[in-house]
User: Fold this.
Amino acid sequence: MTPLTVMLVAAEASGDDRGAGLMQALKRRLGEGVRFVGVGGARMAAEGLDSPFDISELSVLGLLEGLMAYPKVVKRADETAALAAREKPDVAVLIDSWGFTLRVAQRLRRQDPGLLLVKYVGPQVWASRPGRAKVLSGAFDHLLTIHKFDAPIFEATGLPTTFVGNSALSLDFSRADMSVGEGGQPILLVLPGSRPSEIKNVLPPFEDAVRILRQKRPDLRVLVPAAPTVAEAVKARVAGWPFRAEVLEGEPAKLGAMKSATVALACSGTVTTELALAGCPMVVGYRLGRVTYAILKRLIRTPYITLFNIAAQEFVAPELVQDDCNGETLADAVEARLADPALRQRQIARQFEALDKMGRGGPDPSEAAAETVLKLVDARAAR
Assistant:
């Protein structure tokens, strides 16, 4: 019997995690009856995907950065479409990464109008640029969404949508390496992001904050988990810090650090949900290029950038954005939590309440996504 050929395309760390989870779920169902082609990172490679290029070069954020990277994005989209033409997948699942996956979808549609195209994670049209919902509807056959409130928005444009849940809410901490937290010192966990632009814009003010905190607290232990997409850049930057910090690589070490940390200083993104699940209070920081921020500020329709803050409709974790994302302000917010165990416990409790609103404890999203993909494939074959 010919195995089902599934094309998966992920262009950044969070998408790589979701892609790996989907691969595992499909293999549990189909065993040797499935093969994978496409684009992904280290976690998808561990599940057997042979990516034709390193996805770190596609992890760009910001309007100017995107314009500068555009020729490379187009080239990689062309290469991805060429891979599909050679491998002839039965279904293509394109994960997150709006700009890149849209261009891939457009190319796949042109070269094979009958190919089943599934988008896994839609653009956050409830926060900005609602017109993207209509664009998505014209490019894909089905959307797998991680937010309950997405379905009505996209279905109104004619795009069939299935809520599968957020894989970050099903994070398995049984794999955590708890030895990274040994020693008894207070631990500050520094998570500077997974994109090169985040390392450029966010890590410097985080470094300034840590320097201030270490001057006040010489015993503070600093752990810096590095996403695979930016590991070398993070290690190079941290090596130049005038104080000791430990760079961690690999999922078990990161999870162990999240469970052990006293407080985290985190770049906005999927990692904030993971930290909340681990019961770690945090301060969230983010910076963009000035021109990009000035444009996006006019487009954003929500005061929050952190998902559990959006769910709670309040600043459960403080968000220090752009000019507020500076060493002194970040350090003050972190110090307040280091100094006050009761504040930490109140924040942890409120984070858990927000996670419950997001669907914590629900069905495994990877399993739900795999089930939906296979139903779509069967329905297409029955036509």
The CA atoms of residues 8 and 38 lie 5 Å apart.
